[in-house]
Write a structure and sequence with these properties.
The structure holds 2 protein chains of 2 kinds.
Chain A (H helix, E strand, L loop, with lengths): L2 E12 L2 E12 L3 E6 L5 H8 L7 E6 L2 E2 L5 H4 L2 E4 L11 H9 L7 H11 L12 H13 L5 E5 L7 H18 L2 E6 L2 H7 L2 E6 L2 E7 H7 E7 L13 E7 L2 E7 L3 H9 L4 E6 L2 H9 L7 H4 L15
Helix pairs in contact in A: 4-5, 5-6
Chain B lengths: L1 H30 L25 H27 L2 H5 L5 H32 L14 H22 L5 H4 L1 H14 L4 H26 L3
The chains are: A alpha/beta, B mainly alpha.
Chain lengths: ~325, ~220
């Protein structure tokens, strides 16, 4: 399968801070790729660079073997893009929005548009400004999909939607994916959304792509190792796959990717009283990966016991 | 697709043009003595005053044309930024320059038609024998056309200010401020139809090229 999206050392700075840092990404044709990250992790900036809306300071991005900053209109017509917040013209009715978008796409399928509008129960004469966030998201999806694109790029499509609407939108998305076998790149900060849809995930932490693997592989390979000590725990030695390392009283919690015998030997070399290896679900794994250094809440500082007076240390 | 883009631009700006047209017609009816409404805001023409020369038409015209031009330029650009719709619009499979060119053509065309119409109506009235006491020559309308073209520069300045990204609102308005200084200066240029017109066209060309350059290179 050829790669539809390729980025090499893609970097973008805002105010001297790298919001996207040396991003190397490959999305093969037919893949549903979930780009995860907390708010401000660089997901939207990375996506905008793929569409030529933001220019990289370093590195390159290609979509359909074309430089992202100079996409030809013909190439752009093969890509559907749902921007964050579903920006649409508020004065338009749904019907007008459909007619406006249709005018740009010779491959537009009116039958499909009607079908999805009916599926969502969206009245053609309703003004966009009168729609709820969820309905606007649904209209955006109709406009994106009916042009029969080969690549769908969705920037946090479920942002701000309630659970029911989110689930409904994602299920529609799954149906659309199954129906056509398109390539989809979608970003989210909600792990459950990605888990349901994506067959490969990438996790951006402070602009750096820390994970890029099949979703199942990520779930299978991440472990939390809990080490109990008689006194103050030592630091866990730096090693490949170390995600976080934090001390909680006499306990050392280490999160590792690709847990192996080498990791176990490292843990044993610290001579703990006990070693527990805990499997993490995707949600926990994502949280471990993306949260920064954890600090004690100021309101609890005075309530810490002697045993916990060491406090908590930041994650790796 | 061109039709769709033109329709969209017209749909978003016609209300401004409508308001401006009403105000322009008010100025015209006021000066021609038809008094469409029973109150006066702009100059009221004295019976002996020559149309376009001593009747304050150009000043009254400018009072409507300047806000009209500014509103038009900002609505076409700043509203897209405020609502985040640039991302939707610029992802359409059309060259970015073409999207901006359509906006400029529709906005510029709307400005010229709406602001040109009252000049033509007033001139037609002034040219009608017996309508007023003074003589009339078409050359008397030149200051009005001069104002129409000059204020067009403010439209382009507002458009550029709306497209141009800036950290601070004040610096964003820089091109508008520059146009605001240059347009009146050009109005007082000697041999206007040679030097002034050339300067006006040069200013317009600079602003249009800058709009296209900024739109092509800025980030959204």
């Amino acid at each position: 399968m050829p790669d539809v999206i390729v980025t090499q050392r893609l970097t973008k700075y805002y105010d001297r801070r790298a919001v996207v840092d040396n991003l190397d990404l490959r999305v093969p044709q037919g893949t549903v790729y979930g780009l995860l990250g907390r708010n401000g992790a660089g997901k939207s900036t990375a996506i905008k660079m793929l569409l030529g809306m933001v220019y990289p300071d370093f590195g390159r991005a290609e979509v359909f073997q074309e430089e992202a900053g100079r996409l030809r209109p013909e190439t752009r017509s093969r890509i559907a893009y749902l921007a964050e917040g579903h920006p649409l013209y508020r004065w338009m009715t749904i019907g007008e929005a459909v007619r406006f978008t249709r005018a740009f796409h010779p491959t537009w399928s009116s039958a499909l548009a009607e079908q999805i509008l009916d599926h969502f129960g969206l009245p053609r004469r309703a003004k966009i400004k009168r729609l709820s966030k969820g309905e606007r998201a649904q209209v955006s999806l109709v406009l994106a999909v009916s042009a029969d694109p080969e690549l769908l790029i969705l920037d946090d499509p479920t942002l701000g939607l309630d659970t029911v609407v989110r689930r409904d939108l994602l299920e529609s998305l799954i149906q659309i994916i199954q129906r056509r076998g398109r390539t989809i790149l979608f970003s989210s900060h909600i792990l459950g959304d990605v888990e349901r849809v994506a067959d490969r995930i990438g996790i951006l932490v402070d602009g750096v792509l820390r994970v890029d693997c099949p979703t199942d592989h990520f779930k299978d390979s991440i472990r939390k190792v809990v080490l109990e000590f008689a006194g103050r725990p030592p630091e866990f030695p730096a090693c490949a796959g170390l995600v976080s390392n934090r001390t909680l009283g006499r306990r050392l919690e280490v999160v590792l990717v690709g847990y192996s015998d080498a990791h176990r030997e490292l843990a044993e070399s610290l001579r703990p009283l006990s070693i527990d290896v805990v499997e993490l679900n995707l949600e926990d794994a994502f949280i471990e990966y993306t949260r920064g250094p954890r600090r004690p809440l100021p309101i609890f500082v005075g309530e810490q016991s002697d045993a916990q007076s060491d406090g908590v240390q930041g994650a790796a | 697709m061109l039709k769709a883009m033109v329709f969209k631009e017209l749909r978003e700006t016609l209300w401004i043009a409508g308001v401006a047209l009403i105000l322009f017609l008010y100025v015209v009816t006021d000066l021609t003595g038809f008094h469409a409404v029973p109150f006066f805001v702009f100059a009221s023409r004295q019976s002996q005053a020559l149309p376009f020369v001593h009747d304050g038409f150009v000043t009254s015209f400018a009072w409507v044309a300047v806000p009209f031009a500014l509103a038009l330029g900002f609505v076409q650009t700043a509203v897209e930024s405020a609502r985040g719709t640039w991302l939707f619009l610029l992802h359409r499979p059309v060259p970015r320059g073409q999207v901006l060119a359509v906006k400029l053509l529709v906005g510029g065309g709307l400005y010229l038609v709406c602001a040109g119409l009252p000049i033509l109506i007033y001139a037609w009235w002034a040219a009608t024998p017996g309508a007023h006491n003074g003589p009339f020559r078409w050359s008397m309308t030149l200051p009005a056309w001069q104002a129409l073209l000059g204020i067009g520069g403010l439209y382009l300045g507002a458009f550029l200010a709306g497209v141009r990204p800036a950290r601070w609102f004040g610096s964003r308005l820089f091109p508008l401020a520059a146009a605001g200084l240059l347009v009146p200066a050009i109005q007082f240029c000697p041999w206007w139809w040679i030097l002034g017109l050339a300067a006006t066209l040069a200013l317009a060309a600079w602003l249009i090229l800058d709009v296209l350059f900024v739109a092509q290179t800025r980030e959204y």
